[in-house]
Write a structure and sequence with these properties.
The chain contains eight helices and 16 strands. Helix content is 32%, strand content 29%.
């Protein structure tokens, strides 16, 4: 079945979707985005994603393209038109179309684009059962990565560096400490069994799955320590894993060629992934 996209008020065939060449998202990366996971026809962590979308828009001074109820109607309709029950829904809002000038235009109508593609949870589970490899690379991003901006070139370069050596993710390093992954949050399990992840700040994108994982850890009575950690500490950890809407909770079995723990997915990450899925389903 042909895919359907939503573009500025219209549902159109994906292959025919267009935006203006002077859209500021194209010219300046002047926009934000969200990626939402849908399982069995229901959005997971939806409130968190839409709240972060609002925060990102506010931080950039971009007006919301529509109110929350209308946005949710479009999101549901997109699934119906694409006949998808398990999907990743991409939402992008930019400042809109204006003559090319760095300063904000006096009047701009925000642009809104949405797409949906199939998500295979069984495939994701199979990957989590095997675990993934990551590399480390310098964090060269700008100073406000807490805004989910479409300006992702440093992330793209890091992800490509990982792909070129057969790794799934790149962990970004600043001042000797791991901040996060190119498209995920980074975690380790220390010798005391505590989960360690970088605290929320302007240096990381506060992941919505990250927040749910913390809530799951609390339910499981697993201590969470929000602090920065070094690459050496990560390589000596008992376990490591990543979290994101697309990865849920996925174990990391190797960092820069060094096996983590036994070199296989560990019990803590497995418990947390199961708890995350259970919590998401219960939240309906």
């Amino acid at each position: 079945m042909p895919r359907i996209a939503y573009v500025n008020g219209f549902y159109v065939p994906h292959g025919e979707a267009r935006v203006h060449i002077e859209d500021r998202g194209y010219q300046f990366a002047d926009g934000i985005y969200e990626v939402c996971l849908v399982i069995d026809g229901r959005y997971w962590d939806l409130e968190g994603h839409l709240a972060r979308m609002d925060r990102s828009l506010k931080a950039l001074g971009i007006d919301a393209p529509m109110d929350r109820p209308s946005l949710e109607v479009v999101m549901r309709e997109l699934l119906i038109r694409n006949r998808l029950k398990n999907a990743l829904v991409y939402i992008q809002t930019t400042r809109g179309v204006a003559l090319r000038n760095h300063a904000f235009p006096g009047v701009a109508v925000p642009a809104l684009v949405m797409t949906a593609k199939r998500f295979n949870l069984d495939q994701s589970d199979a990957q989590a059962e095997k675990g993934v490899r990551v590399i480390t690379t310098p964090d060269i991003r700008w100073g406000r990565v807490d805004i989910k901006s479409v300006s992702l070139l440093p992330n793209v370069l890091a992800k490509q560096a990982a792909a070129e050596v057969g790794a799934s993710e790149a962990w970004l390093v600043r001042d000797g400490k791991v901040t996060e992954g190119s498209s995920s949050n980074a975690w380790i399990v220390d010798a005391d069994g505590a989960l360690v992840t970088h605290p929320k700040s302007h240096e990381i994108l506060g992941g919505i799955t990250r927040e749910t994982a913390i809530a799951c850890a609390e339910e499981l009575q697993i201590r969470v320590c929000e602090r920065a950690f070094t690459v050496e500490e990560a390589q000596n950890a008992t376990e490591a894993f990543i979290t994101s809407a697309t990865n849920l909770v996925t174990p990391v079995i190797e960092i820069d060629g060094v096996k983590i723990g036994a070199g296989a997915p560990g019990p803590v990450a497995k418990r947390l992934r199961a708890a995350y899925k259970d919590r998401a389903r219960r939240a309906r």
